[in-house]
Amino acid sequence: MMNFSDNKPIYQQISDFICNQILDKKWAEGGRMPSVREIAVLMEVNPNTAMRAFQTLQDIGVVENRRGIGHFVAEGAYDAVLTMKRKEFIETDVPQFIKSMKRLGYNLDDIKGFA
């Protein structure tokens, strides 16, 4: 079961899980994905919620549905997900990180040794 947070809709968190599987190369381009029902059982969510995650990723070309066969990772999905996640990181995570750094009195020199 996945531990969902309150800051994002569940279907988006499932989409993030799927994208992470692609980025971690656990699900390869052209490879078959677990079914909507399998994801729903794994995540302990309603199949409609899982379907919304699949549809969202299908709409942006990361997932493709082959009628009667199932869902597959689309060709070019890795690069598309990487681009999308990099943009999200720069626009969301980095500003929050910098704000927290400043609030706690850190500067870039303080964190150079952690990389």
Can you describe what's shown?
This protein is mainly alpha-helical and 115 residues long. The chain has a domain at 10-81: Arc Repressor Mutant, subunit A (Orthogonal Bundle), CATH 1.10.10.10. Helices cover 58% and strands 7% of the residues. The chain has 5 helices and 2 strands. The protein has a two-stranded antiparallel sheet. Strand 1 and strand 2 form a beta hairpin. Helix 1 packs across helix 3 and helix 2 (36-43) packs across helix 3 (47-59). The longest helix is centred in the last third of the chain and has 28 residues, at 77-104. It starts with 9 loop residues before the first helix and ends with a helix. The model has no long low-confidence stretch (mean pLDDT 93).
Brief account:
This protein has helices spanning 10-23, 36-43, 47-59, 77-104, 108-111, and strands at residues 63-66, 70-73. With 115 residues, the protein is mainly α.
